[in-house]
Amino acid sequence: MTLSDLAERTDAELLALHTSGDPDAFGEIFRRHKDKMWAVAIRTTRDPEMASDAVQDAFLNAFRRADSFRGTAQVSTWLHRIVVNACLDRLRRVRPTVDLADHDPVEPRDHHHSVEVQMDVRAALDRLPQAQRLALILVDMQGLSVAEAAAVLEVAEGTVKSRCARGRAALAGMLSSP
User: Fold this and answer.
1) How confident is the model at residue 54 (pLDDT cuts 50, 70, 90)?
2) What's residue 141's pLDDT?
3) Taking Cα atoms as reference points, which of 77, 58, 57 lies closest to residue 12?
4) What 3-state class would DSSP assign to 81?
5) pTM exceeds cut of 0.70
């Protein structure tokens, strides 16, 4: 099968081809989803090196365990779950060496308004509880539906909605205070 033939296949068809032994099918899945998975990982870990390692781990796990895909969700939702799990596994292993609460935040050096706003939002997002932050990243930043985010996080849709609502309210409060 040629690469152009693979490009016309759905993700589910590619995964089935991969499990049947097609040597190029998973490469097409990787090509399609690597950037989105990287974005999820970087927003989840907030560390480029850790995100890179988590994405690599996630795609290796997906490659090896493709036969465990049940087809009850989209392949992209399944990949999101694997990436989030890889990120959480790496974050659990990391122990902070200093208490960041005892340090003053670094003032941004770039005074362009959009950069300042982006830094403020990122800092506020970092202060949210992990569950709220992950829900907001998946729904508001990655554009997943509530149902897809619920599948990725393995929680009920109502839980995703409440986490997003609480997270947005907390962000609004943090961003409106001086």
Assistant:
1) very high
2) 83
3) 77
4) helix
5) no
Residue appearing with tokens 């109502």 = 158
Question: Where do you find CATH 1.10.1740.10 in the chain?
Answer: 7-94
Query: What is the distance between the alpha carbons of residues 3 and 32, in angstroms, rounded to a whole number?
Result: 13
**Number of other CB atoms surrounding residue 23 within 10 Å:** 9
> Could you report the per-residue pLDDT of 97-112, keeping only the tens digit for each?
444 444 445 444 444 4
**Helices 75-93 and 48-64 meet at what angle, rounded to 10?**
130
Percentage of residues in the chain having pLDDT higher than 70: 84
pLDDT for 119 beyond 80: no
Does domain 7-94 fall into CATH 3.30.1490.100? no
| Distance between CA atoms of residues 173 and 132, nearest Å | 15
| Measured distance CA(172)–CA(170) in Å, rounded | 5
